[in-house]
Amino acid sequence: MKNFLAVIFILVSYVQTYTQSKSDSIRYEIDKQVWQPFHDAFENLNATALNNTYGKDVIRVTPAGLDTRELFIQNNVNRFNKNKAEGVKIELDFWFESRDTDTTTSYEVGFFRITSTDAGGNAQTHYGQFHIVLKLMDGQWKIVQDYDTPQLNGRKITAEDYGRKPSQF
Question: Residue 168 falls within a domain, yes or no?
């Protein structure tokens, strides 16, 4: 009986380790295919590259409402073109509070900080929380649902909230 329990314990440990390792591998793939390009595109005001991180039929949710017609895609182009013309520089930083991932879907929650600095050197910083759903589509991870908000439990997200950032990302 002791040997049987030992074998069961070893199997359970192996399955847990394998599952965690597989999830870490998938999150690494998502980081390379989505989050690094998203970050770089945002800071370089490259709307085409940013929009390429999204899949087809995206659901975009903001405090302004629900966008199921992908109007935000054109808005990204317009906003980035305006920022470029005005000499605005953007810095984006974000971190993950949770990432639940399987082989084809990932649900990721985190916080972001966007600092925009105009040509005169005046900076504004905005904080928010995001909830993202990604799907593996034709071998490529894509954002299929994008929700963000500047509030948490009915109050504005602050630098202090953002400062809870863990050191892993």
Answer: no
In a domain, 122, yes or no: yes
The total of structural domains in the chain comes to 1
Q: pLDDT digits over 60-79, tens only?
A: 998 889 999 999 999 999 99
CATH number at residue 131: 3.10.450.50
Phi, psi of 145 (to 5 degrees): -140, 135
Q: Which residue has the tokens 């087809």?
A: 56
Which residue in 157, 139, 138, 140 sits closest to 148, CA to CA? 157
The parent domain of residue 109 ranges over 2-162
Let me know: does 125 contact 157? Beta carbons within 8 Å: no
Q: In which region does residue 57 sit, left (phi positive, over 0), alpha (psi from -120 to 50) or beta (all else)?
A: left
Query: Percentage of the chain surpassing pLDDT 70?
Result: 85
pTM (global) more than 0.90: no
